[in-house]
Design goal:
The chain is α/β, with parallel strands linked by helices. The chain has helices at residues 6-12, 14-21, 34-43, 77-88, 124-137, 168-179, 225-240; strands at 24-28, 48-52, 93-97, 116-119, 141-144, 156-160, 186-190, 202-206, 212-216. The protein has a seven-stranded mixed beta sheet, sandwiched between helices. Helix 1 crosses helix 2 (14-21), helix 3 (34-43) packs parallel to helix 4 and helix 3 crosses helix 7 (225-240). The longest helix has 16 residues, at 225-240. The radius of gyration is 18 Å and the shape is globular. The protein starts with 5 loop residues before the first helix and ends in a 6-residue tail after the last helix.
Length: 246
């Protein structure tokens, strides 16, 4: 692998680096959390990455997403991330999917091909489907809980979903997964109470019935989602090479 990963190899050893090089990891959601996860996985020597996200880089992403630059606004996030990964490690195989992951699009993906799955998407329906597909395929998965409306990067913890507290998204996920018979799920979540954005952060949206509804825009920053993404990447790496499993 040359000298590129020599500092990492000093920590993990050559056998572990070979394992990482032969691993395929799918990251669903290449935003504030998932973008940093992908960055760390690429810099750790993962040999194949699947990137799944239908969004394009927007100006509002500049405050927190590692792939967001003035020069990348308007481009698909997965394409920008692919270029960045290959500029880090040209030997990495990168597969991109401009897909909004939901039950209706789940059949596009064969989860048995993956050595690990990262859930960094926002919708509960999509997250539940991801988890069920990974569990059915016997593939380890780690899921990101809520990182929006928070300002304390030290409040993140790695835990089982049924041991979480405070996080509103984790509460919803616990209830849904319990109904589906899921016994455990590794998650990264924050114990910080989310901040309520002011009234001006509420926008009008059109629902499926064509009626106007008001929905809060999640607030975020450069240092909270990035930390969540890096924690997730660390857990993936440690699990793949079987060290410090919780």
């Amino acid at each position: 692998m040359g000298d590129q990963f020599s500092r990492t190899e000093l920590l993990f050893g050559s056998e572990a680096m070979q394992k990482l090089s032969s691993s395929r990891v799918a990251v669903f959601g290449i935003g504030g959390v998932g973008g940093y996860t992908v960055e760390a996985l690429a810099r750790s020597g993962i040999g194949e990455l699947d990137l799944i996200d239908s969004d394009k880089v927007a100006i509002t992403n500049l405050n927190r997403q590692i792939i967001a630059l003035r020069s990348t606004i308007g481009r698909y996030k997965v394409d920008v991330a692919r270029e960045r990964i290959l500029s880090i490690n040209p030997d990495c195989k990168v597969n991109v999917y401009k897909t909004f992951y939901m039950p209706a699009t789940a059949e596009q993906f064969d989860f048995t091909q993956y050595d690990y799955v990262v859930d960094a998407i926002d919708t509960v329906t999509g997250k539940i489907e991801l988890i069920m597909q990974a569990k059915a395929a016997g593939v380890p998965i780690i899921s990101s809980m809520g990182a929006g409306n928070k300002i304390d990067p030290t409040a993140f913890e790695v835990s089982d979903i049924y041991k979480t507290s405070v996080c509103p998204l984790a509460r919803v996920m616990r209830n849904q997964l319990k109904k589906k018979g899921v016994k455990k799920l590794k998650v990264v979540y924050s114990k910080e109470q989310p901040i309520t954005p002011p009234d001006e952060a509420v926008r009008a949206l059109m629902n499926e019935e064509g009626e106007t509804e008001r929905r809060s825009i999640p607030a975020s920053n450069a240092f909270v989602p990035s930390v969540a993404g890096l924690i997730i990447a660390g857990e993936v790496i440690k699990d793949l090479i079987k060290i410090n499993k919780y």
